[in-house]
Structures are given as structure tokens and as C-alpha cells.
């Protein structure tokens, strides 16, 4: 069984592949020769993930899945959310994004935030969603230089290290993306047993 993952990020695809049985093969957009930009025009993570999955399914008729991730900050009413990657502008500069969030939280004691990943999978024409969430809080300054995005300012609940201070393995054990992927993988494992 083959599933197209709406990404060109080989690392993301391999991370998911490792969690799946050998009977399921994850392909990137590049693997199947899809080169056009996939739209992300929705106002929610669910909407964006769904739009990307439908884009592939409707054009190519192949089983597929897509994900979208956002940082949701309580004191900012859930922002930046779906706009996390381009919060400080369309050039998607992670430093500028972090600086903007920190600036907006100046003097704010409520630092609660969560990372949320939503996966939309279309299998034999039927769409389903899988969600992973990590609760935590935002620091007042950056710590660590691993990871990407908002990792240097996000301290997951129960940890003394930011995502950017953790090894990839440590982060993957608790990350929002790996929690969503785990749910997807569990579903696919059960599904593949009935093939």
C-alpha cells in the first residue's frame, strides 16, 4: 500500500515511515512527480490540512495525507495559529516570528501556549483527521539552538528544556507532530491487517 504525503520534506516523510509497518510505503510529492505549489488558504489548521489532501486526491486519485501545525498562545487568543510560519511576514522568518510573539507578550504573565498538529488523510475517498497537542508555556527569551520555528521559546509541560534544547529523539518522543503521527500510524496498522 502506498500513501502520498503532501510534503517535499524527506525527513518528515522518513519519520512517519519509521512508525509504519513495512506493508505501507510513504511517498513525498517529489517521489510521484508533483511539482506544483499546494494551496494553503484556509483559516484553520484542519482546513489547511484538508485542502492539501483534497488537492492531491482530486487531481491524482491516490490515497494521501497532509498536515498543518501551529503555535497557539492563550494570551493572544490562539494566535499565531494557522499563520505561525508567516506571522511576521510572508518570508517566513522564524527569528522575526519569535520576536513578534515575544514583543506581543511583553509584560504578560499568562505564558500558556500549545503546539498543535492536524493530519488529514484521505483513504479510498474517505477523509479522517488525527490531532496531536503539546501543552506548555513560552519563555521570555530564547534558549537552545536545535529544532526550528518557535522551539527556542517553547517549554513543554513537565520539562526543564525547551524544544530547541532537546535532541531530535527527545523532541520526537513528546512532540505534537509525533502524537498526531502515532494516531495515524495506529489507524493504518489496524487498517493494513484487514487488507
Write the CATH fold name.
Maf protein
Q: Could you describe the largest sheet, including whether it forms a barrel? A: 7 strands, mixed
User: Level of helix content?
Assistant: 25-40%
Q: What are the secondary-structure elements, in order, as H or E?
A: EHEHEEHEEEHH
Second-tier CATH architecture: Alpha-Beta Complex
| Mean pLDDT value | 94
User: Using only CA atoms, what is the Rg?
Assistant: 17 Å
**Number of DSSP E strands:** 7
Beta-strand residue fraction: 15-25%
The number of domains: 1
For this structure, the quaternary state is single chain
Unreliable stretches covering 5 or more consecutive residues: none
Sequence-ordered SSE layout with sheet pairings:
Layout: E1 2-5, H1 10-18, E2 25-27, H2 45-60, E3 64-73, E4 80-81, H3 94-104, E5 112-123, E6 126-138, E7 154-156, H4 168-174, H5 176-193
Parallel strand pairs: 1-2, 1-3
Antiparallel strand pairs: 3-4, 3-5, 5-6, 6-7
